Amino acid sequence: MTTVDLAPTAWTGRDDGPGAEHLRWHGAVAALEHRTDSGAGVLIGFRSDEGVRRNKGRRGAADGPAALRRALASMSLATPVPLFDAGDVEVVGEDLEGGQDRLGSAVTGLLDAGSLVTVLGGGHEVAYGSYLGIANSAAVASGARLGVLNLDAHFDLRSDPRPSSGTPFRQMADRETALGRALDYTVLGIAQPSNTAALFATAAELGVRHLLDDDCTAANLPAVEAFVEDFLDAVDVLYLTIDLDVLPAAVAPGVSAPAAFGVPLEVIQRVCDLVARSGKLRLLDVAELNPALDVDNRTARTAARLIHRIVTTALATRLH
């Protein structure tokens, strides 16, 4: 049983007629209702921007899950896919930590039931809740090597006394150290002007591998692919987290901190393809969509396309 704060609502969208040939997400997604179908894709929302507020960012990401569902709803499915919606975990007031714990518990239950889990954020504080979910899963408890791949302009390795959207990966590293393990954390898309020398030093101290956004151009795609494949080879189960501010501001304007440069969508999509086809992806989350700042739903549509591509590819890979 997966406990959430808000039950899922019915999905609606464009309807061209009955039958698989007209199938769209809204026609495929069912409420989870305590079902934990092994091999299915399950969505769960994390309605929070408390971490963004603490990190002095622009609030509004708490409305991200609803906007992502709307953007996904009318996307066409080439073949039927088992999809469920578990509802939302909601951070009320300033109780971010309680919300992260509840999200973690829900994600652990879904993962242990064999689901491919997609968490719809929410500020990037969602990442610590997602991590708790997979770190406490049966697979990791039995010794599977966990890898965390972050597509992001920022390291989010701050060591602030109060957790925020800027601290989740430092929290992960500290918790892994306390458990006698090392966090296998890799970041693609780091913007040098957006990360202090202290953050680069922390990343080096923790053994964090990264690629700068300057090195993630389409012309450098073979090197990006090799970087990702090296990471995939070293892990057994994978948690992929996408901060939408990794994309250029023209593609993703509706985020807390739009990118001045960013990584081209075609490069991000190729990275997502490698991850989805690896057979190792267990958990995905998408963070920092701020619908109030979005232009023509541009960010939501881009995020939904990435989710659509990753989930359908990963589920198809599992079935074969």
Identify the notable features of this structure and list them briefly.
320 residues, alpha/beta, nine-stranded parallel beta sheet, 11 helices, 37% helix
Determine the structural class based on helices, strands and strand pairing: alpha/beta
Helix proportion range: 25-40%
Low-confidence stretches: none
> Biggest sheet: strands side by side, in what order?
1-3-2-4-9-8-5-6-7
Could you give the count of β-strands? Answer: 9
Any overview of this molecule?
The protein has 320 residues and is α/β, with parallel strands linked by helices. Helices cover 37% and strands 17% of the residues. Strands 1-3-2-4-9-8-5-6-7 form a nine-stranded parallel sheet, with helices on both faces. Helix 10 (265-277) links the parallel strand 8 (237-243) and strand 9. Helix 4 (96-112) runs parallel beside helix 5, helix 5 runs parallel beside helix 7 (168-178) and helix 10 runs parallel beside helix 11 (298-319). The longest helix has 22 residues, at 298-319.
Secondary-structure topology with pairs:
Elements lengths: L24 H4 E3 L9 E7 L2 H5 L9 H10 L9 E8 L5 H17 L3 E6 L4 H10 L2 H4 L4 E6 L16 H11 L6 E6 L6 H9 L3 E4 L8 H13 L3 E7 L21 H13 L3 E7 L10 H22 L1
Parallel strand pairs: 1-3, 2-3, 2-4, 4-9, 5-6, 5-8, 6-7, 8-9
Helix pairs in contact: 3-11, 4-5, 5-7, 9-10, 10-11
Give a brief rundown of this model:
The chain has helices at residues 25-28, 50-54, 64-73, 96-112, 126-135, 138-141, 168-178, 197-205, 221-233, 265-277, 298-319, and strands spanning 29-31, 41-47, 83-90, 116-121, 146-151, 185-190, 209-212, 237-243, 281-287. It has 320 residues and is an alpha/beta fold.
